Amino acid sequence: MQTLTNRSKMVSNKKMTFMERIYLPAIFKGMSITLKHFFKKKATISYPEQIREFSKVYRGRHVLKRDEEGRERCTACGLCAVACPAEAITMIAAERKPGEEHLYREEKYAEVYEINMLRCIFCGDCEEACPKEAIFLTDRIVKSDYERLPFVYGKSLLVEPVDPNLRIDISGRQTENVLQFKQNKRFAHNR
Ligand code: SF4
Ligand code: SF4
Q: Where do the annotations place [4Fe-4S] cluster 1 binding (predicted)?
């Protein structure tokens, strides 16, 4: 019969030999493969008891940074939301009131800032687009859940703590090349 592709195989109906019928050689062959893997270094770990160290430039859950004085850096310009290919970021901007200078660095700030982690593809475009060094991806992971709502992260989960000892270190992401890129006025979002 004419075959449709060249991947078809002819099945042999020849009688099995004595060695094939007792299956022992096949069993020993399988066992030898198992034994070989038994002494190899394991590719898996016992998470969550063991935690794998992530790369410094791992793109995990986001942080909204504060400046040296503890003020929120985000000015609700919306560039991160525009850059986001997954449309995962939403925000509502508000004007800073007199007396709030210690809370927000800029005259405008994000009253509401949300990232839908179910939509996010952790591409890092929001981080690249931000002109205020306000949003960064980190080596922390998004926790699993059975519901959808907890995956919408608001400011309470995104903004880093005021306490300098609890700040999220993103210095590993700020390589020389990244800093140069962010200062390059050729890119519209750096102007
Ligand atoms: S990492 Fe990418 S997908 Fe996720 S919020 Fe930022 S821009 Fe959007
Ligand atoms: S781009 Fe930066 S400053 Fe602008 S809204 Fe996003 S996080 Fe805030």
A: 74, 77, 80, 130
